[in-house]
Write a structure and sequence with these properties.
The protein folds into two domains: 96 residues, Immunoglobulins (Immunoglobulin-like), CATH 2.60.40; 144 residues, Alpha/Beta hydrolase fold, catalytic domain (Rossmann fold, 3-Layer(aba) Sandwich), CATH 3.40.50.1820. It is 24% helix and 26% strand. The protein has six helices and 17 strands. The strands form four sheets. The protein has a five-stranded antiparallel beta sheet with strand order 1-2-3-7-6, with no helix packed on it. It is globular, with a radius of gyration of 23 Å. About 7% of the residues have low confidence.
């Protein structure tokens, strides 16, 4: 037992030296991607907004990073790639493709996009901090489950409540229904979209009223054709049930389980990309229920 403990402590003492040695080999001017799991140093982001990738796959014949190209194999069994051009500021999805098989990066936190669970790199936008976590009161992100009679399935709404919600038990709040884009799901705005930090900051600065934000699945996670279906028919079907689900099921569920203002003037909807189309189709056909 003493020998084992001695070995463990010796390993721990050597760990900082190993970490420091690895840090010296990092490309100059780079920082770890903010969406890496704890302890993972790759991918890295350069000052010029290029992304640096490093993947361990010693037995692979070919490794690629989606949208960026083929990686170079190093002598130690790692594969590396640097973006050919600076990445556009913002959040970007990526996958590792090993011998033709696409997978999420095991060193990255999972995000749902591109119709599957993938990884992401964040290229910070210079000169702004509206989506950064700050020392302000923070709201809560929770999930609320309900059964959809339209879809014949259990569903969940992701719900943001402002920081003051639990401190004012008699106060009711306006509601924003916020929809994700194509190939994403109900988690996307809260995860990669950082909507909770955006709302926290806007409310703290007095630029937005405290409100509840509801994010649900628009049924546009993946696009496919049914047997005998044309692409045009599929496009019409894509997310086609959602307006009814929102009006007949989600809104009643939210108003039954959260303290909401239920009049038209305190209910709005917005969306990204295909979520914008769902917003258009929902609100313009229900002008008695939405003010914006």
């Amino acid at each position: 037992m003493k020998s084992v403990l001695k070995l463990v402590f010796s390993s721990l003492l050597a760990l900082p030296l190993t970490v420091n040695a690895q840090q010296q080999n990092f490309p100059e001017g780079t920082v770890r991607n903010e969406h890496n799991i704890n302890g993972a140093e790759w991918p890295r982001i350069g000052k010029d907004n290029r992304a640096y990738f490093r993947v361990h796959a010693p037995n692979a014949q070919k490794v690629e990073i989606s949208f960026r190209g083929e990686m170079t194999k190093e002598a130690d069994g790692y594969w590396t790639l640097v973006s050919k051009e600076p990445e556009v500021e913002g959040f970007h999805y990526y996958q590792i493709i090993v011998d033709g098989v696409s997978t999420a990066d095991p060193d990255g936190k999972p995000f749902f996009g591109m119709g599957r669970w993938v990884s992401g790199v964040e290229i910070p936008e210079k000169g702004v901090d509206y989506y950064s976590i700050k020392n302000v009161p923070h709201g809560l992100i929770t999930q609320s489950l309900y059964y959809s009679n339209i879809r014949k399935e259990w569903r969940r709404a992701i719900v943001y409540t402002p920081a003051e919600y639990d401190k004012n038990p008699s106060k009711k709040y306006p509601v924003l229904y916020l929809q994700h884009g194509m190939g994403e799901n109900e988690t996307s705005w809260a995860n990669q979209g950082k909507m909770n930090f955006i709302m926290d900051n806007l409310i703290a600065e007095g630029k937005a009223k405290p409100m509840i934000v509801v994010m649900d699945n628009g049924n546009i996670e993946s696009f496919y054709l049914l047997p005998g279906e044309t692409r045009e028919n599929a496009m019409e079907r894509f997310g086609g049930q959602f307006p009814d689900i929102l009006v007949k099921e989600i809104i009643p569920h939210i108003e039954s389980n959260f303290r909401t203002l239920t009049d038209r003037e305190n209910r709005a909807m917005a969306g990204l990309s295909w979520g914008g189309l769902l917003t258009f189709n929902t609100t313009l056909n229900n002008l008695d229920k939405f003010a914006g």
